[in-house]
Design a protein that fits this description.
This protein has about 150 residues and is mainly beta. The protein is built from one helix and twelve strands; from the N terminus they run H-E-E-E-E-E-E-E-E-E-E-E-E. It has one domain: Methylamine Dehydrogenase, Chain H (7 Propeller), CATH 2.130.10. The protein is about 10% helix and about 40% strand. The longest helix has 19 residues. The protein is globular.
Amino acid sequence: MKRIALLILAILGFSHMVNAQWQQTHGPYGGIINCFARNGNTLFAGSNYAIYLSGDNGINWVQSNAGINYPDVRSFVTDETGVFAGTYNGVFLSADDGQHWTLSGLQYLSVNAMVNTGSCLIAGTGRGMNYTEDGIYVSYDHGVDSCQQRPAF
């Protein structure tokens, strides 16, 4: 009986430790967080309604959507140019750690995933405002010119 009681106490103590490792931060509140990125000391969180920034390792968050009409953010990627946000309405670039955003291409496409391969940026699109151009796009110039469509895998 003593062993069962000790085992139960050990399990209860362990489950408390597992739950105690996660703590809710001071925001962002409201909305589902779809993606995260880090650029230098700034953390980025993308939601269905906004982009949030944190300069203190995620403890506090502020909203920063300047320049994005529909900030439904699905993905982020970084390179030496700055931070790219893949949204329901294209790719937006911030060269100033999220303070301002400008359209960088793929307007009217829902950019659901992005990756930086080192030599190019790749974006996976689907079910945006223009259903006929879904697919995989690549940019060799940091999103400056229109991206080229690649065959889907």
